[in-house]
Amino acid sequence: MSTELDRFAIFGGAPAFAEARHVGRPNVGDRRALHARIDGLLDRRWLSNDGPLVREFEQAICDLTGTAHCVAVCNATVALEILIRALGLAGEVIVPSFTFVATAHALQWLGLTPVFCDVDPITHNIDPAQVERLITPRTAAVLGVHVWGRPCDVDRLSAIAHDHAIPLLFDAAHAFGCSYRGGSVGTFGAAEVFSFHATKVLNTFEGGAVVTNNGALADRLRLMRNFGFAGYDRVVEVGTNGKMPEVCAAMGLTGLESFETFVAVNRRNYREYASRLACIPGVRLVTYDETERCNFQYVVAEIDADVTHIGRDPLVDVLFAENILARRYFHPGCHRMEPYRSLPRYADADLPETERLSDRVLCLPNGTDVTSEDAGRIADVLRGAVAHGAEISARLAAR
Predict the structure, then answer these.
(1) Sign of the C-alpha dihedral, residues 17, 18, 21, 26?
(2) Does the pLDDT of residue 1 top 80, yes or no?
(3) What are 121's strand-pairing partners?
(4) From 203's CA, which of 13, 32, 148, 328 has a CA 20 to 30 Å away?
């Protein structure tokens, strides 16, 4: 005898979508414009090494963010690494554990020690009060992360960094096109790092950038992304190969032309989700301050299993079966990933909010590949799964 649960694909029903809906499927702008740029770079036979498209892209980023300098590189991890090297950091850097592991790895890779800080339970960003508590004579810098594109408490972090005479940096991978108290992300701290990975609201296929108002720092970053070359054959310091290729800049420039459209689609979908998911006990949607500029890329729900009677992870399984590829960000927290969890200094890490969030956060599909109708259907599937949370949990446990 069939039951209400049999309509769910995980129990044999037809999936809600014939093709998968993704978190962060790449946005693509005007293909003809992209092809024209690619034809131009092929005609010039200038494929890399600080080409004209890279310079145009860097200037466009400066114009959009109001930042004096943009140094485009091959990816955001390399951007973090050369920024850390360019600042000459050594010792410990305070960083949230609730972030993509590359933020911590960039520090560890260069021989610095990540000091994992807990986050604010409402904003999901690094908690300034905890930052203050963690500062010691070994602290070289504070590295904040603008999670979901919602900026950190820049004012409080800036005051802390100033009082302790240490640099303040930001991983702004989620926050391109966003603002804090009317000021553009990219203009804060000593420098900020953007990601233009394929999954981001603006992508360059793969890429990243450091943006800063410090001209001397920008000059050093440019040296370091190109093996330390200062001129045709003169090397003045150790560097690496972090250059952005011309074809990536072509994609970035094309995406910038459609950027407001990308944001408008994200906003439309976010509002559809917010409407459909309102007033569901145990489900809290992360909200955006629409008086600020937001890119609305991440649609994030917190799942309280004590109320929904189904945990976040079983919900992910239910949604995956429906071809809704929701994601667990940033499970289980960097301090519970290798190599950190095996290092004695992290054995007693006290990060209750990070661990709570990493067990509750659920990111839902968004982007130009997701229609408002898709968003509504995804929300309805989630609503239905929560409505039958106890029964679904019991049936999954019985398998």
Answers:
(1) negative
(2) no
(3) none
(4) 328
